Amino acid sequence: MSDPGADPYAQPAQPPQPHPQPRPYFEPRPYTPGPYNPWAAEEGPPRDPSTNKLAVAALLFGVFAVFPLAITCAIIALVQLSDRNQPGKKHAIGGLVASGVWLTLIITLSAVGTTDRADRDESGRVTEAGDLAPEKLGVGDCVNDLEETTRVFSLPAVPCAQPHEGEVFGIVELERGPYPGEDAVFAEADQRCNDLLWAYAPSAAQNMTIGFTYIYPAEDRWVSSREIICIAMSPNGPLTGTLAERAQT
C-alpha cells in the first residue's frame, strides 16, 4: 500500500554517477612511419670510418714543406670530403696551414737575406753598397771590413770609386779530394794569389804599399766550397779606384 504523503511525481533515487575525466584539446598519437615523410631529414651517404688518404698526405707534405703536393692534396681531399661522410677535414686544413707557415717563413727569410745586398749594373760592377757573401764576390769587387776574423760570412761591398779596404783580384778553386789541411791551403793561396796579382795589375804587384790577403775554405765547408778569394789591400789606409786606375795615375 502506497504512502499517502509521498509525492506521486518524485523519481526514484539513483546512485551517484562518476564525473567524466577531462580530455585534452589535442590528443597526441604515436608516430607511425609511412611510405613518405616530408619532414624527415635527408640521409647522407653511409659513413666511412677511415680517414681520407689525400688529407693525410696533405698534412705530411705540409709538415715537410712540399708545398705544391700539400696544397694539391688538400684541395682534392676537401672536395672529396664534401661528397663523402668521411673524416679527414682537419688533416687537409692542417696541411694548408703548415704550407702557409713554411711559405711565410721562407718569404720572410728571403726578404731579410736580400736586405742591404749590393746592387750591380749590367757589366757586373757594384753600383750600390751592400753585403755580399764570399761566394757572391767577383773579380773587381771592392770591399771593406777586412780585419782578421775566424769566420767570414759576408763583406760590405762598395763601388770602387768610394774608399775601400780591398779589391778582389782573383779567385782560385782548389782541386777536389780530401781536405788538405790549413797549411797546405795557405801555401797554395800564397803562391796562386801572388801569381794572379801579377797578372791582374803588375804595377800593384810591384808596389810595396800594396799587399794581399785571402778568404779560404774552412774544413767544415770543404764539400760545398773550395774557393780561395784573393783580395789586394794597402796597410797605409783605404784605397780609392781600381788597381788598374791607380796604375794609370
Provide an overview of this structure.
The chain is rod-shaped, with a radius of gyration of 46 Å. Helix 1 packs antiparallel against helix 2 (67-83), helix 1 (53-63) packs parallel to helix 3 (89-114) and helix 2 packs antiparallel against helix 3 (89-114). It has helices at 53-63, 67-83, 89-114, 182-200, 202-206, 243-248, and strands spanning 119-120, 126-128, 130-132, 142-143, 155-158, 166-173, 211-215, 227-233. A six-stranded antiparallel β-sheet has the order 3-5-4-6-8-7. It has a two-stranded antiparallel sheet with strand order 1-2. The protein contains six helices and eight strands, in the order H-H-H-E-E-E-E-E-E-H-H-E-E-H. The model has no long low-confidence stretch (mean pLDDT 80). The protein has 249 residues and is α+β, with helices and mostly antiparallel strands. The chain is 34% helix and 14% strand.
Q: Can you summarize this structure?
A:
The protein has 249 residues and is of the alpha+beta class. The protein has helices at 53-63, 67-83, 89-114, 182-200, 202-206, 243-248; strands at 119-120, 126-128, 130-132, 142-143, 155-158, 166-173, 211-215, 227-233.
